Amino acid sequence: MQQNWNLNLNNIPEELHLILNLLSVKNTSESPKIDWDQFIDLAKHHRAYPGLASKWVLMEESIPSKVKQTIKQLYQRNTLYMLYLSAEMENINKLFQTENINLLFLKGPLLGTDLYGDVSLRTSNDLDILVPIEQLEQAEDLLLHQGYVKDEYFDTQFNDWKWRHHHLSFFHQEKGIKIEVHWRLNPGPGREPRFSELWARRRGIKETYTLAKEDLFYFLVLHGARHGWSRLRWLMDIFQMLKLEMNWEEVYLVFKKYHQIHIAGQALILVSVLFNSPLPKGTERFLQNKRSHLLAQKAIFYFERRVSLHSSSVPKDIADYHSRHLFSLMSIQQKCLFILSLYYPLPEDVQVLPLPKLLRFLYFPLRPVTWLLKKTRKHVLT
Fold this sequence. Notes:
Blueprint: H1 14-23, H2 36-45, H3 49-53, H4 65-98, E1 104-105, H5 109-116, E2 126-130, H6 136-145, E3 149-151, H7 161-164, E4 167-172, E5 177-182, H8 195-200, E6 203-205, E7 208-210, H9 213-226, H10 232-241, H11 248-257, H12 261-274, H13 290-299, H14 301-304, H15 316-329, H16 332-341, H17 347-352, H18 367-381
Parallel strand pairs: 2-5
Antiparallel strand pairs: 1-2, 3-4, 4-5, 6-7
Helix pairs in contact: 1-2, 2-4, 9-10, 9-11, 9-12, 10-12, 12-13
């Protein structure tokens, strides 16, 4: 199934067009004037160099040898790191099994093997694992005993972390490895599959467990959309998943249950257009509303410029656009929960208006006051 979605791609850099062309199903030999330094920078930013490393034969004459050598070196370096990360994945898996902690690997090198058939064909900076929230403290203690250090990046004094956040980060200084321990697939507020459901449908891959294909598709789509698909790697994962046999009826029911059909439609349209790829039979039901098309066009913003949302200093115009885009992705139910969550106290409220512990219940009715104080102080500082 292939349709003409007429997305406006005019402002996407020619260098990214070439990367997409090299990775697409129907590759052509067209080669416009390319800034090869920009090409390499975009290949690194979008984590596309593993896929490009196996595609040079398609445009052997048009790509400078220096560029090919750089991409090859990036690919080789990534291969070594993926093997290194795979060894730690196996170590963590054995440790958690010994302690009877139910563990699902979400991404990392296992995803390279699962989707691409080769651990070297996908990049990963860390290991992402999912555990039941009841075993979260046990998992934390186990990692701390292995020399990992917890990143205390959020405050837990209002006990809202369970629904407002979705993972804890741990870093091993000597190994140089980060592990993100999830108790939810996505940050809240919002409903999603329970761990017990995901565990019941799990798949085994080389003595490890991961999500069922249908659950993995759901997770990867929502993860990529939440980041605006600002790295092409996340959309490449969806592109690879569409090559697998999946029960699209089950996939549809999961997205329908959690009111996310429009986000699946966004991902499918982006894959179809950017990779010039037909969509598999069974995906038609995701594409029956205009909202998916509008969201797909909004996501093109992230391909027109190099957006690093994890940067410590995201430009204000990009941060504002991303906030609006995140809100536009929400279902009506999520928007209602999000607006209600604004009335729930935040740890910063304690700094703005200090109160004794016995009176902290007052932060709930005083939430509009603390919000206004923060806005006023921020305005004064700027």
